[in-house]
Amino acid sequence: MTFSSFLRATTIAATCVSIAWPAAVLAQVHKVIGPDGKVTYSDQPPEPNQGAKASVLPGRVAGSSASSVAPKLRRGLWEFRRSFVINGANKDVTTQNCTDPVSTMSFWQQSMTKVGCTYEDTRRSGNRYTQASTCKIDALAMDRRYMKTLEVSGEDAYVLEESASGGSQPPMSSVTRARRLGDC
Which of 11, 22, 24, 29 is a Cys-bridge partner for 57, taking CB atoms 3.0 to 4.6 Å apart? Predict the structure, then answer.
């Protein structure tokens, strides 16, 4: 594997894991199987008259109510400026996306949990959220420990600092500065 393909694979994996956090602070995620067999995930249960089956997936911080733990971030057009340091090499990535950051984090955490990531309880101190996770994903030859700190600046901005170590990949650190640009 070349360094650039390694960097690309690590960037994708790290982005998925970073985006996933801090979804554990959300109260519930519902796995909904529609009458046609299609599976969807939502933070709301289906209407009783839809003929769908639903189950609640784990994703709640133990002993905490979601409203007291979850960051408040507004839906809209967001810009994400991410700086990586992997194996001594710097990589900067900027993207824009129309999103609800907390719902997106929930979706990714549920997806990553299905492929082998476990998330510890989120700790909150003021506007700072901290969490550790471990990902053992055979398909990515990944057995890594992640430490994440999210500092929220109101409903329109946050900074996510992350580090990863372990497994067959070199240590990685990143800082993501996210800000809401407006409505979309």
Answer: 29
